[in-house]
Design a protein that fits this description.
Number of strands of chain A: 0
Order of helices and strands of chain B: EEHEH
Oligomer: heterodimer
Radius of gyration of chain B: 20 Å
Distance between the termini of chain A: 35 Å
Mean pLDDT of chain B: 79
Largest sheet of chain B: 3 strands, antiparallel
Helix content of chain B: 10-25%
Number of helices of chain A: 8
Number of strands of chain B: 3
Radius of gyration of chain A: 18 Å
Low-confidence stretches of chain A: 1-6
Strand content of chain A: under 5%
Structural class of chain B: alpha+beta
Chain lengths: 256, 123
Amino acid sequence: MLSTNPQTISIQQQIDYALHLADTTLILAQCNAEWCAHGPILEQDIAITNITLDLIGQSRNFYQYAATLINETASTPVTEDSLAYWRDERAFKNLLLVEIPNGDWGRTVFRQFFFSVYQYLLLEKLQQGDDETLAAIAAKSIKETTYHVKWSSEWVIRLGDGTVDSHDRMEAALAAIWSYTGECFEAAEYETESHTRALKDAWMLQVKEVLGEATLTVPENVYMHTGGKNGIHTENLGFILAEMQYLQRSNPGAEW
Amino acid sequence: MHIQIRKFYYGDIPEEKAGGAEAPQKAAANEQEWPLWEVFIRSKQGLDHKHAGSLHAADAAMAMENARDVYTRRQEGVSLWVVESKYVHASNPDDAESLFEPAADKIYRHPTFYDLPDAVKHM
């Protein structure tokens, strides 16, 4: 949270924000992981699963932080695992962008690109923010995110400015995903309004540059979906959580 | 006695005969196939890049990223080189005899017959 006075943010807001950051990275990781053993070519299968592991690492850090905050006042303690596996859809605060279905490879790299550019700018802000834990997590994560931005932008350009077929698929992917990107820049009540808006310009600049190289056009005046940050999700999150939480819910406390 | 002599110009070596462990393939059948690249990694303690393996990639930037993803997952290295396999030329195993065995009995070529003064520490 970016604020000049930490006292003005309540503990509940800090918890919600940490959960939002954790849920977003976890759900994106879970979606990307569906490509494991199904990647278009071996090296890209490994690339996307590496990205997934980076995201899981980040989400663990955020969940551990949220658990620490919750346990300060909770009657029954929570852990990172209980937060990830035992909460229902309405409790998840991830962005809608990360829960939309994978689609084809083009859609997946587009989703990664839009998210990673946003995440890079967000982590830069968090590094300079007042919350020390978030700043430390951001400092570590930004190295991973730098690579995600590079990897996904190059793929967007390769596919956008590729063959006729790949270009058409990227146009379709852009039309399908664009309306989920606006939510990143709407502040939920546990976020600071001014800093979320500031990210938008930088994000748009980077996105326009890459889409330009990829010979794709940014859609104008599109309705933007919203609600993810407050627990109102699309249908797909139900399937994602069912798969992710099934094992823990049927065998509570199971360990490797 | 037949020693085959050919005149080679740079860039002459046809791709079917170039390096890589793959069997020679017709270029036409493989228009869909990405080129093969050899990967060399310099480890944290090492001084030279060692061959780590090969991978497919469409261009040099992708080859570099794929090499990072595939071969440096477990902190194997600090520096990467990637070279397209067609530019790696290997010696012909049939020539091994004439290329390498003559050196075996010429120990006078080794720089080990000098008495170094004690003051010289690193030679």
